């Protein structure tokens, strides 16, 4: 088929009004001709919702339906979630079916539904699914009717012994509920590329991409595409793979094929690339692979996905080689929850989280302890975050065979969903901190290698390719690993409790609060500096073992099901505000690494409020050769980093300046590389509060209307000179106008002088604004419209 004919057909598609949608699945875009189309339609708007704490029939629920859009959570929770909602959630959607759909295969794909799902179409049950973190696809074709159709979904997010994890009242995180990720409808020709979730094919289904050969000179891309012919007659087809770099075609291959009636078959193709642009954390180069299915001259289906050419291997010393180059991965663990909305994040919010992780100095993230969203996976690909991808599991095992079967099935589904992401290092198909029988470990390890030959399994017990061990466990029973090794968690529990982490709900052995790494943003300078020192000590110690990666626990503060407080070991607050420890990690990234996608390059940060009770031993974090510190314009010292027993293995230890006494005014730090000032930071002793400064946290993505996008707005108290105040617990009031909603469910008060709002964007930014007031201060207003940025 010529490029000209392709362009004509796609032009007809646009003129005829066929839809081209982007979803948050790996299959990102499907285009079609007017005469014979395959479409991928976002299905997130115009849902109805109601809920019940008991398992009552829908007919007995007298409450009216509420109009909602996805992603959606059954209840907006308070800041501290002490009784997360659990029960039965019902979702209903009316939609029209054109006659043309009745000649097609119509699939619906739920990216996640917490936790047990049953689905009906027009009163006919079309499927069920167990497990709240991974996608499932159902075939609606046999139950569709022309005109109006009704889809009904019943969700049960109560504790489930088959899916786990622990019952919520014992669990160290929350699982939330609802249709909290997107839903899409695929309208396919009966000659089609299969959906990888519905196909349930070991090592197959959909499009599966691997890289048998990877070097700077040459790379081979192997593409296995599963095709299905649901026609009653044989079909001849052509399958074309087109590789694009920045929109330009650099390679293509086409293969004719014949499928008999009812046949399902795999088509294997290869593309060779000379001098490829390889994917790595420092250079996350992404190609576009376009897959086109033709029947004669008719374009039946087209899919596009971004791919990264790379190799992960290990040498004889169990060091990680990325594209043949030895690499240590500095990383962090992440829980995906937001305040109030739980898991119901927009794709843009997931991307903003990934930006924050990357600019905090990390190149690796462990997705603990469950699968995170496809949007986060795509962000990791784009930003250069290596990912340890995990199934749900934490301190829970059920001897019922149904439990083991479910875990193994979840492992397979995780790999099928995420196998084409270059960011995935290994599959943590393991029940974290859970004694698993050897038979289950073998089944999980085998499942990894069956679904993705040549990839790596990971787990905390023997029997996996990669050994993951938390530092608190290592301190009590370390043995030199005989295989590749990751420090899965560190920096929290060993400063919080005496045990090895298996009894998190036992309170008898906790250390003093001021020694802990669990420090809220409002804990004060001294305790936040203690958190940063704990982290420095622990990260430094990780270099004394043969680990190729480590992961601090944890990136963001989070809620816990079993206790009425916030787990505060995050280097950012629940509202994504940085603590001093954030800047410690940012300083560990080399100044030469610069990206337009996130804050990077030379940095310096003074970890002080510089008030009368501040430490006069001033700690400064920087990745520079030297730092000069000034007080009120007078040079205190210019010096190299302070390397001591806390930091002898670190790339960039902190700079500690001994001032001797406090003098009010301004501290200014200058970062110096090759005798040039490359970055500066100032901290001033604040005066009285005079105003409020509002900031919209976009982190690389401006607010997007029409997709339930959520963003933070920060309200900073400042004095008449614009210096930030550090006062805690100052009440703030917030209001919004235009099509936005303030989601805070608890009073807004300041931490380190700053209040945080979470807002949801509606269908328009026109006239959208937020106003914040405080007693005795003039109101501050932030306009969200594009022209205001």
Descriptive account of the structure:
The protein is mainly β and 789 residues long. It is 13% helix and 35% strand. The chain contains 9 helices and 47 strands. The strands form 11 sheets. It has an 8-stranded parallel β-sheet with strand order 26-25-24-23-30-29-28-27. Strands 4-3-5-10-7-8 form a 6-stranded antiparallel β-sheet, with no helix packed on it. Strand 21 (320-322) and strand 22 form a beta hairpin. Helix 5 (401-418) runs parallel beside helix 6 and helix 8 (525-542) runs parallel beside helix 9 (580-587). The longest helix has 18 residues, at 401-418. It is globular, with a radius of gyration of 27 Å. The chain starts with a helix and ends in a 6-residue tail after the last strand.
What topology emerges from the helices and strands here?
Blueprint: H1 3-16, E1 29-31, E2 39-42, E3 47-52, E4 66-68, E5 88-97, E6 105-110, E7 116-121, E8 124-130, E9 136-139, E10 147-156, E11 183-188, E12 191-193, H2 196-199, E13 207-214, E14 218-229, E15 235-245, E16 248-259, E17 264-274, E18 287-295, E19 298-307, E20 312-314, E21 320-322, E22 325-327, E23 329-334, H3 347-359, E24 364-367, H4 374-383, E25 386-390, H5 401-418, E26 424-428, H6 438-451, E27 458-459, E28 466-469, H7 471-477, E29 485-490, H8 525-542, E30 549-552, E31 558-559, E32 566-567, H9 580-587, E33 604-606, E34 617-622, E35 626-631, E36 634-639, E37 655-658, E38 666-673, E39 676-684, E40 691-697, E41 710-718, E42 731-737, E43 740-742, E44 748-749, E45 754-761, E46 769-773, E47 780-783
Parallel strand pairs: 23-24, 23-30, 24-25, 25-26, 27-28, 28-29, 29-30
Antiparallel strand pairs: 1-19, 2-11, 3-4, 3-5, 5-10, 6-9, 6-11, 7-8, 7-10, 12-14, 13-14, 14-17, 15-16, 15-18, 18-19, 20-21, 21-22, 31-32, 33-34, 34-37, 35-36, 35-38, 38-39, 40-41, 41-45, 42-44, 42-46, 43-45, 46-47
């Amino acid at each position: 088929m010529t490029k000209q004919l392709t362009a004509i057909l796609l032009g007809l598609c646009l003129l005829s009004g066929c839809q081209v949608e982007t979803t948050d699945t790996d299959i990102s875009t499907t285009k079609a001709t007017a005469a014979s189309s395959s479409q991928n339609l976002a299905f997130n708007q115009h849902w109805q919702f109601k809920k019940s704490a008991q398992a009552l029939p829908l007919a007995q629920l007298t409450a009216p339906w509420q109009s909602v859009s996805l992603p959606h959570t059954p209840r907006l929770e308070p800041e501290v979630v002490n009784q997360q909602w659990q029960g039965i959630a019902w979702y209903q959607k009316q939609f029209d079916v054109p006659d043309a759909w009745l000649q097609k295969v119509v699939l619906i794909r739920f990216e996640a539904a917490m936790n047990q799902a049953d689905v009906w179409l027009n009163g006919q049950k079309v499927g069920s699914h167990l497990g709240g973190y991974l996608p499932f696809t159902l075939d609606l074709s046999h139950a569709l009717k022309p005109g109006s159709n009704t889809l009904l979904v019943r969700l049960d997010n109560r504790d489930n012994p088959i899916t786990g994890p622990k019952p919520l009242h014992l669990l160290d995180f929350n699982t939330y509920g609802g249709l909290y990720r997107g839903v899409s409808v695929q309208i396919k020709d009966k000659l089609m590329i299969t959906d990888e979730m519905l196909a349930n094919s070991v090592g197959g289904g959909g499009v599966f991409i691997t890289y048998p050969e990877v070097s700077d000179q040459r790379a081979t891309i192997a593409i296995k595409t599963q095709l299905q012919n649901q026609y009653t007659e044989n079909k001849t087809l052509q399958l074309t793979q087109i590789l694009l770099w920045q929109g330009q075609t650099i390679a293509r291959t086409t293969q004719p094929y014949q499928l008999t009636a009812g046949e399902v078959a795999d088509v294997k193709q290869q593309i060779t690339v000379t001098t490829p642009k390889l994917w790595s954390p420092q250079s996350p180069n992404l190609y576009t692979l376009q897959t086109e299915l033709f029947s004669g001259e008719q374009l039946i289906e087209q899919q596009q996905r971004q791919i990264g050419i790379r190799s992960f291997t290990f040498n004889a010393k169990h060091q990680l080689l990325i594209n043949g180059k030895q690499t240590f991965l500095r990383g962090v663990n992440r829980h995906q929850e937001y305040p109030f909305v739980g898991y119901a994040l927009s794709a843009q919010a997931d991307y903003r989280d990934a930006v924050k992780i990357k600019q905090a100095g990390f190149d690796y993230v462990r997705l603990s302890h469950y699968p995170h969203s496809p949007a986060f996976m795509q962000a990791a690909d784009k930003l250069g975050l290596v990912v340890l991808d995990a199934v749900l599991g934490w301190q829970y095992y059920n001897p019922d065979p149904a439990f083991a079967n479910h875990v193994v099935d979840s492992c397979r589904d995780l790999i099928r969903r995420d196998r084409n992401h270059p960011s995935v290092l290994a599959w943590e198909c393991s029940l974290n901190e859970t004694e698993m029988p050897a038979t289950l470990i073998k089944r999980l390890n085998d499942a990894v290698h069956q679904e993705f030959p040549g990839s790596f399994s990971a787990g905390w017990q023997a029997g996996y390719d990669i050994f993951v061990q938390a530092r608190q466990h290592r301190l009590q029973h370390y043995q030199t690993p005989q295989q590749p090794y990751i420090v899965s968690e560190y920096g929290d529990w060993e400063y919080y409790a005496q045990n090895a982490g298996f009894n998190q709900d036992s309170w008898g052995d906790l250390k003093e609060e001021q020694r802990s790494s669990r420090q809220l943003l409002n804990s004060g300078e001294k305790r936040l500096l203690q958190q940063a020192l704990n982290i420095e000590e622990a990260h430094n110690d990780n270099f004394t073992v043969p680990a190729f990666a480590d992961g601090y626990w944890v990136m963001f503060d989070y809620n816990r099901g079993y206790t009425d407080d916030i787990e505060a070991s995050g280097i950012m607050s629940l509202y994504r505000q940085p603590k001093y420890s954030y800047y410690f990690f940012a300083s560990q990234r080399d100044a030469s690494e610069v990206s337009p996608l996130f804050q990077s390059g030379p940095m310096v940060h003074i970890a002080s409020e510089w008030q009368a009770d501040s430490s006069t031993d001033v700690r400064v974090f920087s990745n520079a050769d030297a730092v000069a510190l000034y007080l009120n314009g007078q040079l205190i010292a210019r010096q190299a980093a302070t390397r001591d027993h806390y930091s002898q293995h670190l790339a960039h230890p902190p700079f500690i300046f001994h001032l001797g006494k406090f003098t009010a005014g301004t501290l200014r730090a200058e970062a110096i590389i090759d005798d040039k000032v490359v970055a500066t930071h100032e901290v001033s002793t604040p005066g009285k509060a005079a105003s409020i400064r509002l900031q919209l946290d976009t982190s690389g993505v401006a607010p997007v209307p029409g997709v339930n996008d959520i963003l933070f707005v920060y309200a900073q108290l400042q004095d008449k000179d614009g210096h930030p105040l550090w006062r805690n617990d100052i009440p703030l009031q917030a209001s919004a106008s235009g099509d936005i909603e303030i989601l805070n469910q608890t009073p807004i008060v300041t931490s380190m002088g700053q209040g945080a709002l979470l807002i949801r964007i509606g269908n328009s930014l026109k006239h959208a604004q937020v106003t914040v007031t405080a007693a005795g201060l003039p109101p501050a207003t932030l306009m969200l419209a594009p022209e205001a940025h």
